[in-house]
Amino acid sequence: MLKVDGLVKYYKKTLAVDGLSFEVGDGEIVGLLGPNGAGKTTILRCITGIVQMTEGRIEVDGVDLAANEDAVKRRIAFVPEVPTPYEMLTVREHLRFIAMAYQTMDRFEERADDLMRRFDLYDKRNDLVLSLSKGMKQKLAIACAFIHEATAILLDEPLIGIDPKGVRELKDMIAEAKARGSSILISTHMLDTAEHLCDRIIILQQGRIIAEGSLAELHERAQMGRDATLEDVFLTLTEESSAVEATTLS
Amino acid sequence: MKPLLYLELRQFLNALKNTTRSPRRLVLALIIGACFFSWFLNTALLVTGASPVERSGFSNVLERHAELFRVGAFLLLCFGSAAVIYQAFSSGSLVFTMAHIDFLFPTPIPRRSVLLVKLLKDYLRYGFWIAFLVTCLGMPTSAAAKQSFFPYGLLSIAALTAYMIFIVNLAHTINIVFTFGYEKVKQAGRIIKPVLILAAVSALVLGVFQYIQSGGDCYLSIHRATTAPVVKVIFTPADWCASLAVAPLIPPADTDLMHLALLWALAAAAFAMLMSRRENIYEPSLGITAKVTRMRQAMRAGDATAIRVEMMSDKGRKSAGMLVIPPFGRGAVALLWKGLLTRYRMSAGQLAAMLVLPALLCYLLGNFDPISDILKYLPVILVYLSFVFSITVQPQVRSELKYANILKAMPIAPWKVMLVQSISGTGYLSLGILTFAAAMWLFMPAARNDVLRACVIVSPFLGFSCISAAVIPALTYPDTRDTTQNFFCNLVGFALIIVAAVPSIVLGTLLVWLTYTPSQASPIIPLWITVPLCAVNLLIGAAGVSISGAVFRKFDPTSE
User: Fold this and answer.
1) Testing the interface with B: which of A41, A54, A97, A98 to mutate, by most B Cβ within 10 A?
2) Parallel, antiparallel or unpaired: strands A29-33 and A200-205
3) Nearest CA of chain B to the CA of A81: how many Å?
4) What ipTM score was computed for the predicted complex, to two decimals?
5) pLDDT by residue (tens digit) across B393-432?
6) How far is Cα B518 from Cα B521, in angstroms, rounded to an integer?
7) Which residue of A lies nearest to B91 if distances are taken between CA atoms?
8) Strands of B274-428, DSSP E
9) Mind telling me how many Å the CA of B82 is from chain A's nearest CA?
């Protein structure tokens, strides 16, 4: 279980995340939606310990990030948005380095071969990352995230740039991780993906949650019919929130 | 630690393999290696005395003004370290790679291990570059002064490396503390910054005082400014380091050796201070890493426009502001107008610096006693400047050629497109030459002579021919992402610039030799000799434009 409680993040004087609280249960997929600059990447970076939260508490499987960062990080897998892998490593070496970093070298060969086959990287296993296309680099980043069995999987725009087969594989792997009981948090702009993949959706604006719930609950919140898409709901809710913000300021 | 060592080792070995397996990379590496080796051997031979080149003028200057080098080193260290420390308050200083951010930072590897490996790598790099630069500069200088570079050169390298490590560690620590404890340590910042400013002001006051006292001797004034008590106290380590940096010229005293030990102690203390920080070192590095990555890519690609965009984004400039000037002309003229205008899109500070720095430099040189004898010949440097400027125009042209698909679609003849590239480059070059010439005329009375007049007239023409030649390899090696193409573009460009400059050098030397009248006050050169020089360069430039036009017509510069 991933638990975020009262998360506040300031970059010097700029408030990026404003008292955010949510949970991702075991075997649950939660989508993080929001316009550009809503704070999605900052939230993921706070959870992975890349940036230091100003206030709040983050727990993975009951382990506090502030108290035991290494233990929390060992439970997390992260796919960054537009990943830039180490170009001077081969595909296999890259996977090996990540496995070494997470101290999961047992059954490495077997797991690495399986992942490389699933993402069409096997034939390029001894090629330098330098020679891979953008989509292949994205697939490598996904393979790296699944090289260890994380209990919390964070994906930042994971479907951008990969081919349909890769998308299918990723969706299958997410489903497998969900079946294993992992908590999955996906930050995305692709609303149709979120609509079909996520159990619950969190809509962010200016570092705050403006709506949260299943698709049905969001329809209700936006006072829209069942036939409305997530895109309609998202645009209605974010515009509504902007209008409220403008009124409050004036 | 084990995964980090694995990462570094594999990357290093793969980089070596990648170079040796690819013939074009191997050839490139061998050429660079051979150049450095031969150069090193040459300077080393100067030291052993096998065939020392007699540089009597330089030797005299060294003997009379050895202290000048110490003051110069001290000033450079002061300015450099003050800038690094000052910058650390506002922007990050720990630069990682984007791969580290994406793949290393989220892993459970302890941050201290990551920091330790990164620092050790940085220290090795500093040590290597300092040793390389000190050896490259120190060997010929020592040889000219008829002294051996070794063993005191080793002291210089050790001192500069220790000082560099000390300052960099200090800057990293300040940056980390200020990123997280912004409000808490704001007061400390309010003290440290004014102290640096106070040092600068006190140095300025003492310098001005000495300037008035000595009747306008800039060297004495700068020397006095560096001995201002506040400067001496704040920059004590820089003072120690400067004395040791010139050890091959001024043999060190016993106290200098003690200072070297103290410098290493400071470096070790700063390292311990940095390693003891408990804050998240990753956060302050995110912005600077992304920025440096973009800048490196632009520089590696030789993309002058991208470099300028990065520099402007650093200043927070988002609109053209006062620099919005309406379009002008049609066809090639409109293209030329656009080329000229877009290059002025820089911060007001940069624009001012382009005017103020030449003036300041000329003023200082004009009042710099040790070199007063050679000032009347200094305008010759304008010719050299036009040569150097023309080399820097090539990246500008290459970045412009990224839009070759748009340029080729325009109803403008290829030779005109290339002529525009050469003329706009020449326009900037001429402006630079004129700025320097005006500064010389205003602030260096000894340089107001026929040499200045002739050089001002000839330099833009020489620049035109050199730029026209430099444009040709930009078309034949268009892919700015390919390191090998970048190298060959620079190499061939440099060779072509030399070829373009040779007729001017030969003809100029011949004409000056035939017409030169020695004079005690200032050299006399008749104005008419500039006419054949300008004509020759115009012809070479026209030939260059014709060739590049033909190449531009046939080849697609966007192809890889």
Assistant:
1) A97
2) parallel
3) 9
4) 0.88
5) 777 777 777 777 788 888 888 888 889 888 888 888 888 8
6) 9
7) A12
8) none
9) 23
